[in-house]
Specification:
With 396 residues, the protein is α/β, with parallel strands linked by helices. The mean pLDDT is 94. It binds S-adenosylmethionine. The site of S-adenosylmethionine has 21 residues, from helix 3 and helix 5.
Length: 396
């Protein structure tokens, strides 16, 4: 996600319909809190704020992605991103002698369009292009975009209601892992406390309570993994929902490659002493800030990904690590240069536009370093070039 500022005071006022929608979402969450006896875990709060049917950020109709939304993702910045990913898919599909592409969380459909277009150009169209989308609104937008921008491939695309079974092919999940509700915790007096959400007049507020066993065990496990006890006052997140999803996703793959692309770090970096505020981020109208309890239902809530946790869940589910690279390396080693082969003969205006896109996707100060790609594979396959040259899986 590409956003501009980290200043909460800088947030624009929501327009009247958005404010009214947020009030409806807040009302829904207040009811849930009351029914639960006065408080809910932050993970439950995040689940409702993002996914409450017809209300949540991803379930209701607000425009989220793109220049008139709240954030912009790599496939929205440039089709170059999907073109390079298509090259990796083609490399794997060729080894498998065919297969499908599966895209969970396809957003606006931009990635599907750019990958299908490039796969066609490479003569490597998949048998099927499957999309799993939890948001009914986004699913409609995906279909409309595919109908408009690559109608010739529409018959290949189908939307599925759950993870596929016995999948063979390539899974591409861009910025999906960060969208899973997270549990937030604080260490106090050596104890693990769970962050909970209560109502406070018209607003929401934090409350801390003794952590349930699952959360406490997850925190103790990460302390063991990093070889370091977290100090008093330390706050962060764990994502049991993401761990379960990765386990289920891996179980659904019979043979092939999974590419998970997101902003994230290794476990040691995630729980480093200086990161005692955690990795939650909120996105509203191209501003990033760190108060998830405001603007319910009209701002995106995300958490950076602990890629070591994902790698461990995948290994436990029998998949091996094909590679772990930054987004910049993924693109550079994956064929970005080939995509720009005609650059010198392009009109200047096009060159300027493409240069801007490449900078956003690859510069360390933009998306190049914070975003990583973790490749997971099952079966005897050569990992695609993008995952090999600069692999840093040993850091996980
Ligand atoms: C930040 S958007 C990224 C969209 C798109 N992949 C892109 O890069 O532009 C997150 C997407 O994941 C979807 N999503 C969230 N949880 C999901 C789940 N459990 N399974 C499938 N999609 C999910 C959201 O509805 C949304 O489409």
């Amino acid at each position: 996600m590409q956003t501009e500022a980290f200043i909460r005071n800088d947030l624009p006022e929501p327009d009247a319909p958005s404010a009214a929608h947020s009030e409806r979402v807040a009302g829904h969450i207040r009811d849930v809190i009351e029914l639960a006896g006065g408080s809910i875990s932050f993970a439950e709060f995040m689940q409702h704020a993002l996914y409450a049917p017809g209300l949540g950020y991803y379930s209701a109709g607000a425009r989220k992605l793109g220049s008139d939304g709240d954030f912009i993702t790599a496939p929205e910045i440039s089709p170059l991103f999907g073109h390079v990913l298509a090259r990796q898919c083609a490399f794997v599909l060729d080894q498998l002698g065919g297969g499908a592409v599966f895209e969970p969380g396809a957003g606006s459909g931009a990635l599907a369009v750019s990958m299908l277009t490039k796969l066609d150009e490479l003569g490597a169209l998949p048998d099927r292009y499957l999309i799993l989308e939890v948001s009914a609104d986004l699913r409609e937008r995906q279909e409309a975009r595919i109908n408009l921008e690559c109608p010739q491939h529409r018959d290949r695309v189908s939307w599925i209601a759950g993870l596929p079974e016995d999948f063979e092919g390539v899974v591409v999940a861009n910025e999906v892992a960060d969208a899973f509700p997270v549990e937030r915790f604080r260490i106090q007096g050596g104890e693990v406390l769970q962050a909970r959400v209560v109502t406070d007049g018209p607003r929401f507020a934090w409350q801390y309570a003794r952590a349930p066993d699952l959360l406490r065990d997850a925190v103790r496990e990460l302390e063991t993994d990093t070889g370091r006890a977290l100090g008093d006052g330390y706050e962060s997140e764990v994502s049991p929902g993401l761990r379960n999803w990765v386990t289920d996703l891996c179980a659904s793959v019979r043979k092939g490659l999974v590419l998970l692309i997101d902003y994230g770090v290794t476990r040691r970096e995630y729980y480093a002493p200086e990161r005692g505020q955690g990795w939650l981020r909120c996105h509203f109208r191209h501003r990033a800030h760190d108060d998830p309890l405001i603007l319910p239902g009209i701002q995106d809530l995300t958490a950076w990904v602990d890629f070591s946790m994902v790698a461990t869940a995948a290994s436990n589910a029998g998949m091996s690590i094909a590679g772990f690279v930054t987004q910049a390396q993924l693109l550079i080693d994956g064929g970005l240069e080939k995509e720009l082969a005609e650059f010198n003969s392009m009109p200047v205006a096009r060159q300027v536009k493409l240069s801007g896109q490449v900078k956003l996707l690859t510069l360390p100060s933009e998306m190049g370093e914070n975003f990583k790609c973790l490749g997971l594979q099952r079966g005897a396959l050569l990992p695609p070039p993008a995952l090999i040259a600069s692999d840093r899986a040993h850091l996980l």
